[in-house]
Amino acid sequence: MDLYEKIKELAAQKHVSIRQIEEQLGYGNGTIRRWSKQTPGVDKVRTVAKYFNVSIDYLLGHDEKSS
Questions:
Q1: Where do runs of H (alpha helix) occur along the chain?
Q2: Is 51 within a domain?
Q3: pLDDT digits (tens, 9 = 90+) for 3-51
Q4: Domain of 24?
Q5: pTM given for the model
Q6: By CB distance 3.0 to 4.6 Å, which of 14, 32, 48, 57 could disulfide with 62?
């Protein structure tokens, strides 16, 4: 599962849309969706990990535990 799919799964569990996450984090429309094709900076990944209270490794698929 890629980064975007992982974020999409976490968003569904939290009952928020990707767009709502982007707005809350101050990202432009479509920023997170583009992560399915390009790698974001570590700062953005860290911010999303904090938002969902998970580790960066979990978001990147290196760790199966959410935190």
A1: 3-14, 18-25, 31-34, 42-52, 56-59
A2: yes
A3: 999 999 999 999 999 999 999 999 999 999 999 999 899 999 999 999 9
A4: 3-59
A5: 0.87
A6: 57
